[in-house]
Amino acid sequence: MKPLIRILLGLVLGIMLTLGGVILFGQFTPQKKPAAPSLPDSMGAVITHIAGPVFIIRGEESLEVIPGDRVQPGDVIKVTEGAMAQVQLADKGSALLGSDTLVRFIKLTGADRKLELRTEILTGSLSYKVEKLDNSESIIIHADNTEYEITGTEFVLEKRSDGSILIVGEGTVRASGTTIQNGKVLVKAEQQLLVRGTSDPLTPQTGSVMPALPAAPESASKENLKRLQEAAPLPAMPFGFSNAPKPVPVEINTTPPDAQIYIDGLKTGTGKFSGILPQGTVIDLRVRRRGFLDFSTKLTAESPIMLDVVLKPAGIKDTLNQPAGETPAADQLKADYERRIAELKESFAGKAAADKEMRARLEMEKTRADVLETELADSKAENQKLIDLIRQIQELADKEKSK
Predict the structure, then answer these.
(1) Bigger pLDDT: 341 or 355?
(2) Phi, psi angle pair for 72, to nearest 5°
(3) pTM to 2 decimals?
(4) How many CB atoms lie within 10 A of CB 6?
(5) In CATH, what is the architecture of 247-322?
(6) How far apart, in Å, are the Cα atoms of 187 and each of 122, 156, 184?
(7) Which string of b and e fits 281-297 if b means at least 16 CB within 10 Å?
(8) Are the beta carbons of 50 and 66 closer than 8 angstroms?
(9) Concatenated DSSP letters for 276-318?
(10) I need a surface site. Which of 129, 130, 263, 321 has the fewest CB within 10 A?
(11) Please, are residues 109 and 89 in contact by the beta-carbon 8 Å criterion?
(12) Please, which pLDDT band fits residue 21 given cuts at 50, 70 and 90?
């Protein structure tokens, strides 16, 4: 009898998830469904997913974002700490803005369905998944006086106070600027590019700013490739073309409000997730918080979904067996510390190489000086011999005259 009860409960749960509602220790309460937004039928940029407080700074206004909001040239998207937002570029690709991020949209055009996008990342992280662009299309990102030109790729770009780092997963990114080796480099798949900002490390002897070494591509570390995977954009919501998929709104709320929401294994944020998905999309949902039992299920976006998940407190045994809570702040501090140490080592290595080259040049100049001194001494000796010879000739000439 028990297996039959489990099957019936599973069917009821599936119906509840499809219709939308509250899961409270197995109880269900219907909720009001979110309305589907209207997406543009032409090229443009639309915010499709958010978790946590996200704002559009437009002129003097700060507008709270909801999925379906369009981005205009001049807008600055502000993602607060612990939040995220995803921007869909019609059918060309997606951009995921991570926690504590500011991105300015400088130019956004799409004449004849050709994309021309120019943005500037002021701080935070920006992860792209872009389809192959043709020669008349362009996506350009500015950061730390460096220009990144996208041709069709998957990558993440992080901008901090001490510089920026580009990690490429697939495709290529062309980087150019005054701090780039030879002025322009091509960063390929599984490579990274570290560009220092204005806060270069100081020499311990004088306290003066050491010149930054030109940035050049290098193999991406395992840690950075993992960061690239964790920052991958969520399922795309393409639009702007005939037969575009129907958008289905999805809203997920959690109790406790700081529970972590994962979609397809990627952490989106805590407490609340709102998004729009193509009709028929299936996602894996997991809600997790230390001290509570995990909740996981599959959601199919056939019709609007409104889901409130209330986690059940874990017992003593389950609590003790749960892994320690995540410490993103400490992890970020550790990553920043390791990056600064690597920069210092690189700078000191460059300084040591420069000092070695200078010492070699000084030694060479000293050797040349010794040679010149010897040649000068020899020349003086030859001159003296010549003077003595001239004197002897003069004396002989005087004697001949006196006879």
Answers:
(1) 355
(2) -115, 155
(3) 0.72
(4) 10
(5) Sandwich (2.60)
(6) 21, 12, 10
(7) bebebbbbbeebebbeb
(8) yes
(9) EEETT-EEEEEEE-TTB--EEEEEE-SS-EEEEEEPPBP-HHH
(10) 321
(11) no
(12) low
Q: Residue type for 16, please? A: M
Q: How much is the average pLDDT of 336-340?
A: 55
Does the pLDDT at position 323 exceed 60?
yes
| 80: nearest Cα among 95, 64, 65, 100 | 100
User: Which residues neighbour 398 within 8 Å (Cβ) at sequence distance 6 or greater?
Assistant: none
The topology under which CATH files domain 45-197+215-231 is Jelly Rolls (2.60.120)
Retrieve residue 244's tokens.
């575009």
Give the three-state DSSP class for 324.
Answer: coil
User: Confidence class of residue 186 from pLDDT cuts 50, 70 and 90?
Assistant: very high
What's the farthest any 2 CA atoms get from each other in the chain? Answer: 152
DSSP for 182-242?
A: GGEEEE-TTEEEEEE-S-PPBPTTT-PBPPPPPB--EEPPHHHHHHHHHT---S----SST
Question: In angstroms, what CA-CA distances link 54 with 105, 241, 297?
Answer: 15, 27, 26
Q: What is the DSSP string of 240-261?
A: SSTTPPPEEEEEEEEESTT-EE
Label residue 223 exposed, middle or buried (CB < 10 Å: 0-12, 13-18, 19+): exposed
The helix/strand/coil state of 91 is coil
Task: Identify the residue whose tokens are 């490390």.
Answer: 201
Residue position matching structure tokens 């080796």: 181
Query: Can you tell me the mean pLDDT for 351-359?
Result: 70
- Residue 48 near residue 276 (C-beta atoms within 8 A): yes
